[in-house]
Write a structure and sequence with these properties.
The chain is α/β, with parallel strands linked by helices and 230 residues long. It is built from eight helices and seven strands. Strand 4, helix 7 and strand 5 form a beta-alpha-beta unit. The radius of gyration is 17 Å and the shape is globular.
């Protein structure tokens, strides 16, 4: 019998170096979240810092994100993900499409433990990392799915779908329709207002709101588009 070879063979041994590294990011995450108007517990901040340390450590070998410096990951990944937290208040089920290295899904799941998160991506290395991170961080409200969106079969719909740099709206919206319950919405995170994308969006979708996201430490325009089925 041939044993399965893990794509992250050393990950279970991360604990001591990663816990040491995570202490370097606690203050940045705590101060940044306060500037976003968020009230996170000390344990949530520590989990977020642990996630940054994990991501920084294993990004060196597995190319999980283009951001190489873990200190830069705090504003560009963690705070950016948390910037939409006020927009998902009360949501019970959320699908994060094209989650990549777990963004924005894992930071949101840490900050909102009452919501069940499904993190979907087609890249096996990234979903393997995300699954290991979920186990090591102790996140019982997160399910990780390795699948293309076209091949994903969900047992039910979701209250909200998030997408961060996943695909243009014209291609993404038809793929998401089967996973949305009545009254559900898509929160698409964009680096600009995406007026051209909206013009090319398929009929039957309505732009409900555009939120400007002011992320501490991140330059340029960030926004989130909330779209619903008409």
């Amino acid at each position: 019998m041939v044993a399965e070879i893990s794509l992250l063979p050393e990950l279970p041994n991360y604990r001591e170096p990663v816990l040491f590294m995570s202490a370097l990011f606690v203050n940045d995450i705590a101060s940044g979240s306060r500037r976003l108007g968020l009230e996170l517990s000390a344990s949530q901040v520590e989990q977020l810092a642990g996630f940054v340390a994990l991501l920084g450590k294993w990004n060196k070998a597995y190319n999980l994100t283009a951001i190489r410096d873990p200190r830069e990951m705090v504003p560009l990944h963690i705070l950016d993900s948390l910037s939409i937290l006020p927009l998902i208040g009360g949501v019970k089920t959320l699908l994060d499409v094209g989650t990549g290295a777990g963004l924005p899904g894992i930071p949101l799941a840490i900050a909102q433990p009452a919501c069940h998160f499904t993190l979907l991506d087609s890249n096996v290395k990234k979903t393997r990392f995300v699954q290991q991170a979920v186990l090591e961080l102790g996140l019982p409200n997160v399910e990780v799915v390795h699948s293309r969106i076209e091949e994903y079969n969900s047992a039910g719909g979701f209250d909200t779908v998030t997408a961060r740099a996943f695909a243009p709206l014209a291609r993404m919206l038809p793929q998401l329709e089967p996973f949305m319950t009545d009254g559900a919405s898509l929160l698409a995170m964009k680096s600009q207002r995406a007026d051209e994308e909206l013009e090319q969006a398929p009929q039957g979708w309505c732009l409900q709101n555009t939120y400007t996201l002011k992320v501490p430490g991140v330059e340029g325009v960030r926004c989130a588009l909330r779209l619903v089925k008409e």
